[in-house]
Amino acid sequence: MITSIQVLLTAFIIFAISRAFLRFREKAITAPLFIFWSLIWTVALLVVLSPPITSKLASFIGVGRGVDVIVYVSLVLLFYLVFRIYVMIEDLRHEITYLVRHIALQKSSKKSSRPLSSSRKRGSKK
Amino acid sequence: MPDHKRDVKATIIVPAFNESAVIHKVLKSIPRRVKGLSRIEVVVIDDGSTDQTAQEAQKANVAIVSHSINRGLGAAIKTGIEWVKLNGSDIAVTFDSDGQHYPKDIHKIIKSLITQKADLVIGTRFALKQKIPKDRKVLNWLANIATLLIFGVSSTDSQSGLRAFSKKAIDLIDFKGERMDFSSEILHEAKRHHLLVKEVPIKAIYTSYSRKKGQKNLNAIPILIRFLVRFLR
What we know:
The structure holds two protein chains of two kinds.
Chain A: H1 4-25, H2 31-49, H3 52-61, H4 66-108
Chain B: E1 9-16, H1 23-29, E2 39-47, H2 53-58, E3 63-67, H3 73-87, E4 91-94, H4 105-115, E5 120-124, H5 134-151, E6 163-165, H6 167-172, H7 182-192, E7 197-201, H8 208-213, H9 220-232
Parallel strand pairs in B: 1-2, 1-4, 2-3, 5-7
Antiparallel strand pairs in B: 4-6, 5-6
Helix pairs in contact in B: 5-7, 5-9
Keywords (chain A): Membrane, Transmembrane, Transmembrane helix
Pfam families (chain A): DUF2304
InterPro entries (chain A): DUF2304
């Protein structure tokens, strides 16, 4: 018997997977990132359609209830994603600074048309 | 290290953000002749100021490099170092634009760099007995502890704005920190490249203006977070 919350969540998950696929097709996200999000949403779909899976997992890893497993895993995942986003923002800041520096040096002297010796080259990560 | 027998040029890098009130006076106070040097050049890195900083600096007849938007002290210092690499100099000195440093200390740190054959000389504000606000003492002490714990480098003044770099240090030191976190990173880079680091006591001039313009106490938290993220990434 499928409940209304399961229908709603399933619809949302299918929508999320479709958005990930569209982004991948537009080349806005890479293949590994598309696979990552597809896996996350597929696991979520399995849990929504078959909640006893979480209870089995909970007893396997020694957590009281199935819903607790979902909360713990979600929290860890969210913390990790926040960390990745923070790193990504830092990278963007460095890219902006590199451009600002390059333009400033170019304006100040003709000599500075030489490439900067900085490790922060566009598209490179250190 | 610079060779004494040939011409030795030094560049004073002055990072500035909205310092129109004092920049001209500070630039005028910088010595243009130092024993042992054939030439001193001053470059102001205007870090996206929204006031008349660049115009005021221009009056002092110095080179000016302007960031189109504000990128932070570390980013401005790095632009200065890049400018030195492009224009050639044997020594680079960083000097705050808020009037916190005593101009004659430039002689001291350059002398130490040359005579002690050091690669990096840090002007330390805590070696001399002088009036330093308590909150600054605590903040610097915490920054020194963080530098020791995170980078494994011991310094009595890891956040000092008065430093001198040898040609070797100019070429080798490459830091990513764009805000105040770059100071500790410079020390870490010096350690990584096995550079000789020396500390020289300097005077610190704390006025209500420099206190207002200087590092904010609450900035310590984001600086620490940035250190950790760079460590964990």
